[in-house]
Every structure is written in C-alpha cells, then in structure tokens.
C-alpha cells in the first residue's frame, strides 16, 4: 500500500471513529465506562436510558472499536478498549467550552 492510499484509509477510519461520538448517550456511556466495566443494565441505570437503547449504542461503540466486552456466565460486561477515549472526550469538552466563551465574548462586545 502506498503512502497516499494509507493516509486516505487512515482518514476514513478516523471519520468512522468520530461517528461513534455523535450521540450524547454514547458519550454518557463512555463516561460511565471510564470508571470500569459495567453490564448493560448497570449502564442503563447510570445513564437513565432503557436497556434496549443502551444495547444499540453499545453495539455502535463496539463496532467502532471503542468498547470491548467480556462474558461471565450469562452476563456480559463492557469496558473501554483504550482509556485515551476518555481523554478525547475531555479534550472535546474543553474545546467546546472555549468556543462558547469566545462566542459569548463576541456577543457581549456586539451588544455594548
């Protein structure tokens, strides 16, 4: 594979990973899993979303490689595949706070 093809493929994969973050429920799931592995019912309880919805979101996170699973008898536990995912979410939050501050500052300057 040549360098250009590799970079194009990597960019495509990066976009696919970013799609996993486009739903607030998924970000809440990541936050819950940042403290350690949990079952779907435990995640649902902590996020406040029905189990069926959590299962759908966990599948998307699994398909993206963000979340892994471990089976213990009949129970399945989910965990983050890489703790840096939490750092990504925190960084995005920090960037958004800065963007909001800048917009608020511009708004206040325009109404004075």
Describe the structure.
The chain is of the alpha+beta class and 112 residues long. It has one domain (3-82): Winged helix-like DNA-binding domain superfamily/Winged helix DNA-binding domain (Arc Repressor Mutant, subunit A). The chain contains five helices and three strands; from the N terminus they run H-H-E-H-H-E-E-H. It has helices at residues 3-19, 24-33, 40-47, 51-63, 84-111; strands at 38-39, 67-72, 75-80. A three-stranded antiparallel β-sheet has the order 1-3-2. Strand 2 and strand 3 (75-80) form a beta hairpin. Helix 3 packs across helix 4 (51-63). The longest helix has 28 residues, at 84-111.
DSSP summary, beta strand count: 3
Report on the biggest sheet. Answer: 3 strands, antiparallel
Q: Find the structural class using helix and strand composition.
A: alpha+beta
Structural domain tally: 1
CATH topology: Arc Repressor Mutant, subunit A
What is the CATH homologous superfamily assignment?
Winged helix-like DNA-binding domain superfamily/Winged helix DNA-binding domain
Net shape: flat
């Amino acid at each position: 594979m040549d360098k250009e093809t590799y970079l194009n493929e990597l960019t495509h994969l990066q976009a696919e990973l970013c799609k996993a973050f486009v739903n607030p429920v998924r970000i809440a799931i990541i936050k819950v899993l940042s403290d350690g592995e949990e079952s779907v019912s435990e995640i649902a309880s902590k996020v406040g979303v029905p189990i069926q919805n959590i299962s759908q979101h966990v599948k998307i996170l699994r398909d993206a490689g963000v979340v892994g699973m471990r089976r213990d008898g009949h129970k399945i536990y989910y965990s983050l595949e890489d703790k840096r995912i939490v750092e990504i979410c925190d960084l995005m939050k920090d960037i958004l706070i800065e963007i909001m501050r800048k917009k608020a500052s511009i708004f206040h300057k325009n109404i004075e």
